[in-house]
Design goal:
This protein has 330 residues and is an alpha+beta fold. The chain is 44% helix and 12% strand. Strands 1-2-3-4-5 form a five-stranded mixed β-sheet. The longest helix is centred in the N-terminal third of the chain and has 40 residues, at 18-57. This is Nap family protein.
């Protein structure tokens, strides 16, 4: 006799005691803070090793194919975002990739979760896709504390960024106009201010996003071969340069960080504080309109995957590309 229900569905668990829930929440926060300190420490330890690795990568007989080989054996959480057309553009033109935790100083002070990606490409005469020889994409770790209309305190933290324009050559835009439209909106916001959703650039981008979502859905319905399935976000890897995330300024983040630290100090002292709402709770959330026009919704996840996996294990992936069995030890 089969039962399709999971064990969690079949067993009625008693509610977790409130006292235990509070202890769990405090311990989870302590784990999170320890992980941030670990990132700072790791950064200091890795810096001289990364410098030595760069010397190897820049060897004349290694450099031309190094990153092409690394990307060819990239882990699934990265490889799945690279379409065949992206692979051609990257494989033929990518010369170097650098990842920096740019808000950290040499002593490890600062925000270790902010990331800067620098992609170096061949010159415009050799690159058939675009004329940029360097693309720099920065992700800032930001925090936000807000009040819902019902009065609940809400906290959010994550990576935000600004779109980076690519100067595509004629008929070579792999994002099919999405990245240009995202850049147009960001520039219009800076120029005009006010409600972004009232800008014509917002309407233009929203229309393009909808068209691409419909196109991706149709492609998924028609494609039964998993290897030929579209990217999880339905667009080119190069739309990664258009990721924005939430609209949280540096000033707003600094204010929120102070409030979060004040609340944490009270918790550590055993003081009662008003209960914060879940960051995923949609209770009376004020929308900034960016989610509806996000062209690469997994941009933050991909950034972390590149920084914490592909970048740190680049030599391992390079070795895999040369090994007959696909491992780095043959």
């Amino acid at each position: 006799m089969s039962n399709d229900q999971s064990l969690m569905d079949r067993i009625e668990f008693p509610e977790i005691p409130e006292a235990a829930m509070k202890k769990i929440a405090i311990l989870e926060e302590q784990f999170a803070r320890a992980e941030v300190e670990q990132l700072r420490h790791t950064h200091k330890l890795m810096a001289p090793l990364i410098a030595k690795r760069s010397e190897i990568i820049n060897m004349p007989d290694v450099q031309p194919e190094f990153w092409m080989r690394v990307l060819a054996t990239a882990p699934p959480e990265i490889e799945e975002y690279i379409l065949p057309s992206d692979a051609a553009a990257l494989g033929e033109n990518l010369k170097n990739l650098t990842v920096e935790r740019f808000e950290l100083d040499a002593q490890g002070n600062g925000e270790p979760r902010s990331l800067r990606f620098t992609f170096d490409f061949k010159n415009p005469e050799e690159n058939a896709f675009f004329s940029n020889e360097k693309l720099v994409k920065e992700f800032y770790w930001r925090q936000e504390v807000s009040k819902s209309k019902s009065g609940r305190t809400r906290t959010w933290e994550g990576l935000v960024s600004e779109p980076v324009r690519i100067n595509w050559k004629k008929d070579a835009d792999l994002t099919k106009g999405l990245l240009d439209a995202a850049c147009d909106l960001a520039e219009a916001e800076k120029k005009n201010g006010g409600d972004r959703q009232k800008l014509p650039e917002y309407a233009a981008l929203a229309k393009k996003v909808q068209e691409h979502e419909e196109e991706a859905a149709n492609a998924e319905d028609q494609d039964e071969d998993e290897e030929d399935m579209p990217s999880p976000v339905g667009v080119s890897f190069f739309a990664f340069f258009g990721y924005r995330g939430r609209d949280v300024s540096a000033a707003k983040s600094q204010e929120s960080a102070k409030e979060i630290e004040a609340r944490w100090a009270k918790v550590q002292n055993g003081e009662d504080i008003d209960e914060a709402g879940d960051s995923d709770d949609e209770d009376d959330v004020e929308e900034d309109g960016l989610e509806e026009v996000e062209i690469f919704s997994d941009g933050d996840d991909l950034a972390v995957a590149i920084a914490e996996d592909l970048w740190t294990d680049a030599l391992n992936y390079y070795g895999k590309a040369s090994a007959p069995c696909g491992c780095a030890h043959c």
